[in-house]
Every structure is written in structure tokens, then in C-alpha cells.
Amino acid sequence: MNIKSLLLGSAAALIAVSGARAADAVVVAEPEPAEYVKICDVYGAGYFYIPGTETCLRIGGYLRYDIGVGDSGTLDGVNNVPDDKERGKTNDTYYKNMRFALRTYTGQETELGTLKTFTETRFQFGNKSGDYTGGATDWQAVSKPVTLNFAWIQLGGLRVGKDETAYDAFIGYAGNVIQDTIIPYGIKDTNVVQYYFDAGSGFTGVVSLEEGTGANTIDSYVPHVVGGLKYKGDWGAITGVVAYDSNYEEVSGKVRLDVNVTKELSLFVMGGYGTDDNSKDDAANFLKIHGRTQYKPWGGNWAVWGGGTYKFNDKTSFNVQASADDDKNYALAANVAYTIVPGFTITTEVDWDHYGNYGNPSVYGNWSKADKKDGVGGIVRFQRNF
Predict the structure, then answer these.
(1) pLDDT tens digits for 134-158?
(2) Beta bridge partners of 251
(3) What is the distance between the alpha carbons of residues 82 and 180, in angstroms, rounded to a whole number?
(4) CA distance 112 to 57
(5) How many CA within 13 A on the CB side of residue 291?
(6) Residue 315 and residue 383: Cα distance in Å, rounded?
(7) Which of 117, 265, 334, 357 gives 327 a disulfide partner, CB atoms 3.0 to 4.6 angstroms apart?
(8) Are 299 and 330 in contact (CB under 8 A)?
(9) Cβ atoms within 10 Å, residue 30
(10) InterPro entries, per this entry (predicted)?
(11) Rounded to an integer, what distance in angstroms lies between the CA atom of residue 92 and that of residue 72?
């Protein structure tokens, strides 16, 4: 009897222990929900942390559709500047271009300062122009080469990679018109080694060693050199840049004044001057004819640009630019930009060009003579930024 009771008691104890263990196995702490996207607001809107890192990433860009009419210079489709060899030609139909620009931005704080990167890749489809010669004529719509327009790394003030030349980017572009380079003020793309510095009290500067672009790429170990200084205040800014072209040992410079007249009205004027003693007789390259070089792409020694922006309201603005150069080329561009909804803007622009020595065969040769001395055209642009 005692043995039977002992066996029954032992069995009951074992069942109780097993049940307790089973109960313990069921009661497990639930895992915390994973946070796949964590907002990073250090560098502005749109950034988020790459999971598992301290690097902040932003993905953006724009889609742009241009419809051009008339007989003024057409856009080249790569840098959105007038194609030099198309200036003054009559267009028999519309010319169009669709562009998708994909941009990436990163930022991370380090013991040596902020580490940043930026890239922009462009995909395009449109009418053939100077950047594409794959057998298509001017009016045929074709897919254009994919281009890497920006790809640079910056740590603190030091930047290396592919960028727009500091000769353009530091001083600013010639207004908010689409065709701001009818009288060209610079050539944009180049590989660079740059240093930006902030002296405080509104003063900033840059020094840039550059490889050049296309036929203006350096032909020795001596780089092109660009330097710039800027003072910026509430009233506006004054900026100057100077560049040394190592291929031709020429010097060019630009100065610019920006004035915020009122909350609605802002004005600018920019002047450029460059030497051409060693380059003006080089007829082997189109840009270098009559002294058009990496940092002096305008005709003759001097050029000037001026204009402004008037904001009617938060959605609508009027932009205008007038320009001229020493070769008696003149241009006027004006547009109205209207933001339908945030991120989507339609711009309608009218452009006028007068070709001075540009159309003179005694200066540029018969192959570059413009069909007309004056050209009038227009562009309608639809752009979605994101």
C-alpha cells in the first residue's frame, strides 16, 4: 500500500513539473517590432538612415519634358545648353526631349567633419542634337546615351570627383531662364579636386584643380585652376571667380552682383573677361575658334549677362535675362514659371538671338555660318521634382 502510494505520488509530481515546464515554454516575450526606415533630419527633408549604419540617404531627382519651337539654338540634351552647331538654324518641326534624372545624396558625421556624396545620372529620349550622332537627322527622335553628370565625395571642405566646374557653380548661373547660355558663360562638366572654405561673417571661397572637358581636357600634368571668393548678406551677394587655362596659358574671370530689391524682386548682373592671345587662331576645334576656350566660351574678350526674377505669388514667377558678347552676339530670354501643385511646374519661355560675328564666315568658316542673323524660338517645359 505504501509502495503504491509512493509510485502514484511520484507520477503526480513528474506530471506537475512537466506541466510547469510546458507553461514556461509558452510564456515567451514578444519581439520588438523592427524599424525598417528611421528618419534622418540632420541634412534636411527626405533623408533616412540606411539600416545598420550611421549613413543618411536621400533618393530624388526629376522628370522633364521639353517642347521647343522656332529657329533659335536648340538644346544639346546633355547639359541643357544650346548646341553651338545648331545656332541660327531653322527647325522644320517641333524638337522635344524627355529626361529622367536620378539623384542620390548621402551624409554622415565623422571626426573629420561631414562626409557627403552626390550623384546624378540622366536618361533621355528626344530629337537628335549635337551630343548624339548615331545616324539620326535633326528631326528624328532617338534614345540618347546615359550620362553621369555628377559623382563626387566630400569630407569637410574637400571635394573630389565629377562635378560642374567651380567657375560656374560657385558664382551661379545666368538667371532662371531655360536658355541661360545663349551667350555661353562656362563649360560645366569636369573632374575636380576642390576645397571650399567658410571664413565666417558671410565670406566663403573655393580653390579647384580641374581636368577640363572634351577637347579642353588638360594635355599635360598641369591642371586648370579656378579660384573664387564670395560675400553674402541679407541684401544679396557679390562674387568673383578667376580661372587659368593650362592648355593655352590663358586667364579668364567673372564678377557678379546679386541684389534682393524686395521680397518679390531679385536682380543680378554678371560680367566676364578673358584673354585669347594664344587660342584665337586655333581653328582645329570649334570651341577654340576666335578664342573660345574652357573658361572663355563667349566670343571676343568680354561678355555680360543681366536679369532678374519677380515672384507674383508662391506659385508664379517671371524670369528674364539679357546677354551680349564682344563678337556682337546678343540674346534675350523671358519666361513665366507656374507651379500647378508642389513639385510640378510648367515653364513657358520665348528666346531671341542675334548672331554677329558668329555667322561671319571670315571669322568662323563657312561650315559654321548661321542660316539667319536673327532667331526667335520658344520652349514649354513640364517638370516634376521629387
Answers:
(1) 555 556 788 888 999 999 999 999 9
(2) 244
(3) 9
(4) 19
(5) 21
(6) 14
(7) 357
(8) no
(9) 5
(10) Porin_alphabac
(11) 12
- The single-letter code of the amino acid at 291 is G
> How far out from the chain centre does Cα 260 lie?
23
Pick from 330, 272, 327, 329: which is nearest to 300 by CA?
327
Comparing CA positions, the residue from 288, 295, 278, 309 lying closest to residue 368 is: 288
Query: Which parts of the chain register pLDDT below 50?
Result: 7, 14, 20-23, 73-88, 130, 287-288, 359, 361-371
Closest CA to 194 of 228, 222, 219, 221: 228
- Residue position matching grid coordinates 551667350: 183
Cβ–Cβ under 8 Å, residues 322 and 42: no
Burial 348-364 (b: 16+ CB within 10 A, else e): ebbbbbbbbbbbbeebb
pLDDT tens for 29-41 read 666 666 678 999 9
For residue 93 the three cell numbers come to 518641326
Question: For residue 373, which amino acid is it?
Answer: K
